[in-house]
Design brief:
This protein is an alpha/beta fold. It has two domains: about 10-240, Phosphoenolpyruvate-binding domains (TIM Barrel), CATH 3.20.20; about 265-310, no CATH class. It is about 40% helix and about 10% strand. It has twelve helices and eight strands. The protein has helices at about 10-15, 30-35, 50-55, 70, 85-95, 115-130, 145-150, 180-195, 210-215, 240, 260-275, 290-310, and strands at about 40-45, 60-65, 100-105, 135-140, 155-160, 200-205, 225, 235. Strands 1-2-3-4-5-6-7-8 form an eight-stranded parallel barrel, surrounded by five helices. Helix 3 (about 50-55) crosses helix 5 (about 85-95) and helix 6 (about 115-130) packs across helix 7 (about 145-150). The longest helix is centred in the last third of the chain and has 21 residues, at about 290-310. The two termini are about 40 Å apart. Residues about 1-15 have low confidence and may be disordered. Bound molecules: 3-methyl-2-oxobutanoic acid (KIV).
Length: about 325
Amino acid sequence: MSTTPTKPTAATTASTRPPTVERLPVTIPALAEHKRRGEPLVMITCYDYPSARIAEEANVDLVLVGDTAAMTVLGYDSTVPVTVDELLVLVKAVRRGMRSPLLVGDLPFGSYEVSNEQAIATAQRFVKEGGCDAVKLEGGGVMIDRARAIAATGIPVVGHVGLTPQTATAVGGFKAQARTAERAQQVIEDARALEQAGCCLLVFEAIPAPVAALAMAHLQIPVIGIGAGAATDGQVLVWHDLLGLFEWGSPRFVKRYAELRPRILRAIEAYASEVRGRRFPSAEYTYSIDPDELAELQARLAAADSARDAAQPSGSP
Ligand code: KIV
């Protein structure tokens, strides 16, 4: 057997290494403690194992496997079509990649609205099969009952108000919400009702910063904002938005901390060009074999060929 040292590949490293950072798991009481101490909470979406490993190493506090996966990784036009089974595959991969951030799974459209029983059953799948620490659902109104029902079974629930992408059509599309006093009051009342229903955390999406700031004064539980200004207890961004992985623009509230798409594109183009030009793989990326072993292999092959020729009936093609 060759003793040439092997370069670790994604396959060999990923399958054998546990997450690298040892940190105590972030708990629900720890979120409240962050709020009490005025320490902002950091949340990011993840949809796969490598991103979860990075989130862990970057010390984020919460990871959301959002139903944005529908658009960011599954290529749907909206979050509506994604199913529980599709999201659970991603949730499990994320769970395998991290230990300490609190893992929140998004209940997808159609998986919790019909009844409290449906909501509980779906939430239980996210906890039992996916290993989630909490589940998130969107909206106020009847969803407050769903949140209460899930929370009553002991599963931590995260509410989500403001822009609720699963029902974006009903609220006028993907645009900022709560921009009139009446709509803003509704959002704040929904948030308070979700808190009363037992939610442990809220997400405010795409609402004016002053509205979010006013709402904060009426809430005890931590609130994570996305496009809701700086007054919330923390922030969440979508992985692909933060890293600049799409060629199209991002919503106003997204700060792109990197522009990875052009870099990835250049890397793939370079790889394609080197393969086509026979410059990859060069010697450094190949395995060697002891010359004696190679010589013996050639001798064995030659002997096997001769034996085959000798065994062939004469006259056969
Ligand atoms: O699905 C998602 O990623 C979300 C965030 C935008 C908060 O709900």
